[in-house]
Design goal:
Blueprint: E1 35-44, E2 47-57, E3 62-66, H1 73-81, E4 88-93, E5 96-97, E6 108-111, H2 123-133, H3 138-151, H4 167-179, E7 185-189, H5 197-214, E8 217-222, H6 225-231, E9 234-239, E10 242-247, H7 249-254, H8 259-264, E11 269-278, E12 283-287, E13 292-295, E14 306-311, E15 317-319, E16 330-340, E17 344-351, E18 354-361, E19 376-380, E20 386-389
Parallel strand pairs: 3-8, 3-9, 6-7, 7-8
Antiparallel strand pairs: 1-2, 1-4, 4-5, 9-10, 11-12, 11-14, 12-13, 14-20, 15-19, 16-17, 16-19, 17-18
Helix pairs in contact: 2-3, 2-4, 3-4
The structure holds adenosine-5'-triphosphate.
């Protein structure tokens, strides 16, 4: 398979997250990475911001860097753009070492969180600005600006100034301005941070559509895990300048490799216990209160080892009666709190394994709910719902 080409066919409707990842160059040993970061390090006055990080990104990916504030995401983008110089390590784009290449010569453009639109210029003048500076012929500027206005659906507002636009519209102009120069790699630093939740969600799908149409490789920085899961072909969860886990959104969500990642991506219950049986295709764990936890995937750990089983709240079934069937993966407890979120309720249950959260869709109205505060309940889950974590 060639590493070149889009991950989604141009012009096809946006599909979120993993659906676009049917073409998976990262699983193809012959695929050549488009961006290669090798043992990259960057410190600021003794503080390590990027700590020996290596990463391959493939052409046409929508790659998300995700992590808590201060974990080094923006520094990594700035290193790629050439605004910072690494202390050591190597950055290659299309096989070319970027060390001697100044920012303005890199095939990279960066879209900032603030959008930084020129307030005295109209939408089309803002988009045309970079091309004018590069002395692109007038006719070509007009064609490319029109193309971009259509792409971001801003043609009817082309003559407006930024202060006459909504946040979402300004975001689209900033995107058009970044794309009009046809970078090979677009870096987006928290591009949707200024938008309210609903607009943010809509714009995420718009970004996916646009990225698929233009076929440019996008690297987005966000601290919002839902956003990363929605837009990304793959994501890297960072912590203290390192990558803790790299994978498609569903790999990272379903199979976190540590308690740190499990807790950072979504909500999770962690049950501590000791391995009773460690088979090739299953693990049986003994936990507090005589609970037996069965997971249908093997792990690389010995009998007796302390492990944590991670189970997402939506994977737990909560019932007022003990469920039929085997006694594994079932604990009882008492409801001490119910969080009503409209679409779902979160049941907080005190159990011998600690406080456990279970999410249920609100198919019934609140008043008709069969489980209430102080009720004795049973929580159960299937062997493929949990993941055994060693750290
Ligand atoms: P946020 O989500 O808050 O933007 P981030 O993950 O993007 O965080 P960075 O901005 O990359 O984090 O910063 C990583 C670390 O490096 C932080 O501790 C930050 O204080 C430090 N840092 C970044 N830039 C500089 C600088 N120019 N001088 C000194 N320290 C810096």
């Amino acid at each position: 398979m060639s590493p070149a080409g889009h991950l989604g066919a141009p012009g096809t409707p946006a599909k979120s997250g993993d659906k676009r990842a049917r073409v998976e160059p990262w699983n193809d040993p012959t695929a050549v990475p488009y961006v290669r970061l090798v043992d990259l390090r960057k410190s600021f006055s003794g503080h390590v911001a990027v700590d020996g990080l290596s990463l391959n990104i493939y052409r046409g990916e929508f790659f998300a860097l995700l992590g808590p504030s201060g974990c080094g995401k923006t520094t990594l983008l700035r290193l790629l753009a050439g605004f910072e110089t690494p202390d050591s390590g190597r950055i290659e784009i299309e096989g070319v070492d970027m060390a001697p290449v100044p920012p303005y010569r890199r095939p990279v453009n960066m879209m900032f969180q603030s959008y930084a639109l020129f307030p005295h210029m109209t939408v089309e003048q803002n988009i045309a600005f970079g091309l004018k500076q590069d002395r692109v012929p007038r006719g070509e500027i007009a064609t490319r600006v029109t193309e971009m206005l259509d792409l971001v659906r801003m043609a009817p507002l082309a003559r407006r100034k930024p202060d006459q636009l909504s946040g979402g519209q300004q975001q689209r102009v900033a995107l058009a301005r970044a794309l009009v120069k046809r970078p090979k790699l677009l870096l987006l630093d928290e591009p949707l941070a200024a938008l309210d939740r609903k607009l943010r969600e809509e714009t995420q799908f718009e970004l996916i559509n646009i990225q698929e149409k233009v076929g440019i490789t996008f690297v987005i920085v966000t601290h919002d895990q839902e956003e990363a899961m929605t837009v990304a072909t793959r994501m890297a969860v960072m912590d203290h300048g390192r990558i803790r886990q790299l994978g498609t959104p569903s790999e990272v969500y379903e199979y976190p490799n540590s308690r740190h990642v499990a807790e950072f991506i979504g909500d999770v219950n962690l049950f501590e216990g000791q391995i009773l049986e460690a088979g090739r295709d299953h693990v049986l764990v003994s936990a507090a209160g005589g609970a037996r936890i069965l997971v249908d995937r093997g792990v690389d750990a010995a009998v007796g080892a302390t492990v944590w089983t991670a189970v997402r709240p939506e994977k737990l079934r909560i019932t007022a009666e003990p469920p039929d069937g085997p006694a594994t993966n079932c604990i009882s407890g008492t409801v001490y709190d119910i969080g009503y979120l409209g679409d779902v309720s979160i049941y907080h249950v005190a159990t011998p394994l600690g406080r456990v959260r279970a999410t249920e869709a609100n198919r019934l109205r609140l008043v008709e709910r069969p489980i209430s505060w102080d009720d004795k309940v049973w929580l159960s889950w299937s062997p493929n719902a949990g993941v055994v974590l060693l750290q």
